[in-house]
């Protein structure tokens, strides 16, 4: 009886051991599955990192190519800018030479004729008008040659009166010649001074005009 009980206990122990062994086997299988899953995940991460490294290398190579291209474009732009600067300078020189040639032709062709007419006694009062025209042409030629005429800021009437002042005519003479009032002439004189930036009230307007566009004999203003 006791032997049977011992056998039964041993059988229970063996069954318990079998159960534990099954549990251990299942745990081992689960660990293997987890290990395989981790190994797969690690392999995937490794492959992803390698792809990122390859992309980074390609990106760096592309950046180097872009930088090289940018350097080439910069050199090209600098060369083009230098060429354009030289071209602009050449065009400006050609323009100035052309305008100066035009100014010389104006003086050579028209001024002698007008001066001869101005010396003709038959012209009468028109000689004053011719003198104004000569002054205007001289100012125009000087302005073209220098790139900026002195009287370019003035209106046509102001330019006409400025030329008369420069030639030595008084305000009364200008008023009589143009058939305008003396006050109108004085207003023009003030405007001429303001536009030519003659701020010194004691400065001679005629002297200023002569100094800028040539010297003529006559009365001071």
From TrEMBL:
Residues 147-211 form the HTH luxR-type domain. GO terms for molecular function: DNA binding. Keywords: Coiled coil, DNA-binding, Transcription, Transcription regulation. One of its GO terms (biological process) is regulation of DNA-templated transcription. It holds the Pfam family GerE. Gene3D superfamilies: Winged helix-like DNA-binding domain superfamily/Winged helix DNA-binding domain. Residues 7-69 form a coiled coil. This is Transcriptional regulator, LuxR family.
């Amino acid at each position: 009886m006791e032997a049977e009980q011992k056998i039964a206990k041993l059988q229970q122990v063996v069954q318990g051991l079998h159960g534990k062994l099954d549990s251990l086997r299942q745990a081992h299988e689960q660990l293997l599955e987890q290990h395989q899953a981790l190994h797969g995940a690690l392999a995937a991460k490794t492959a992803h990192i390698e792809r990122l490294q390859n992309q980074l290398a390609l990106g760096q190579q592309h950046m180097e190519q872009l930088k090289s291209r940018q350097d080439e474009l910069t050199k090209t732009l600098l060369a083009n800018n230098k060429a354009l600067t030289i071209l602009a300078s050449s065009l400006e020189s050609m323009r100035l030479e052309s305008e100066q040639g035009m100014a010389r032709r104006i003086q050579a062709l028209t001024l002698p004729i007008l001066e001869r007419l101005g010396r003709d006694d038959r012209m009468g009062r028109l000689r004053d008008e011719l003198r104004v025209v000569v002054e205007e042409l001289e100012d125009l030629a000087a302005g073209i040659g220098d790139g900026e005429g002195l009287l370019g800021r003035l209106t046509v009437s102001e330019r006409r009166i400025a030329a008369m002042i420069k030639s030595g005519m008084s305000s009364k003479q200008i008023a009589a010649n143009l058939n305008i009032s003396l006050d109108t002439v004085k207003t023009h004189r003030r405007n001429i001074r303001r536009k030519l930036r003659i701020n010194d009230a004691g400065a001679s307007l005629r002297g200023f005009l002569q100094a800028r566009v040539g010297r003529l004999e006559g009365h001071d203003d």
